[in-house]
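=== RUN LOG ===
request id: a7f3
mode: sequence -> structure
chains: 1
length: 327
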Amino acid sequence: MPDLAIETHGLTKRFRSQLAVDGLDLAVPQGAVFGFLGPNGSGKTTTIRMLLGLVAATAGDARVLGSDMPRHVDAVLPRVGALVEGPAFSPYLSGEANLHRFDAADRRAPRRTRTARVAEALDRVGLSHAARKKVHAYSLGMKQRLGLANALLMPRELLVLDEPTNGLDPQGTREVRALIRSFAGDGTTVFVSSHLLAEVEQICSHVGVMSAGRLVTQGTLEEFRDEGETRVLVRTPDAVRAREVLTGLELGINIEPAGRGGREAAVSRPDATDDESVTARIGATPPEVIVAALVGAGVRVRGFETLHANLEQRFVELTGEGFDVVQ
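=== RESULT ===
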């Protein structure tokens, strides 16, 4: 197993009668961009708060950057940048003054480089032009970027970001994505809690999915996709014969007209004179075996495609819930 930036065993949090996090075994490799997915109320933010020592776990243990939390919170947190549940700033101070204030509260932050580091952090998140503007006049997206700037005031080995693109316009979202990629390029581990599937697919190397307080899966993004239901799509004028062959291979079959855009609508007796789309759940059957069986049975194959589950389909398979895919 690679070195882990975050590792938990049986991590549990109960609030009176509510079990918010249930026996979490999490493994986040160093250098990864880890997408922590789940609907509202699934336990994501509670998990983050336990990892950062903001709330005590009911049971289990957590290690962050190789140290037990919250036992070594004083040694760990200076190495971690965090943006949790939205940034909170003094509204009548400027963005620049707020960052100076937060940096002064960090006893490990060198005073002599403070001005330069604040300016660099503001520039990196695109807020140099608004450095002296009072925060109450900032948009929600600007406040979010200021929160990221605060997390970047000192070099960090781990960034924990809770919904980092919340409130950002499309351009701001792209900028934050580019920032996250640059953090990972510098060797920083990034732990991103998000409800946007498109965001996770574009920036993350690993994912974990929460549902009702439990971690239902974790691993690389490719492993997550590959674990889903795989299908083949066959376009052929011999749909009836194709169905017989595929049924003989004990595959789950659906047949539909080729022009219907891939929706699975069963057709009892398709017209064999026109191309039909025949889809089948293939399980462990190699696609080349399926093609050979079709051709050997005289089926005219005009198109053949392997269809892998996308991130949204995998999420629904695992949780039985819909998911916000709108950016």
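=== NOTES ===
The radius of gyration is 25 Å.
The chain has eleven helices and 15 strands.
=== END ===
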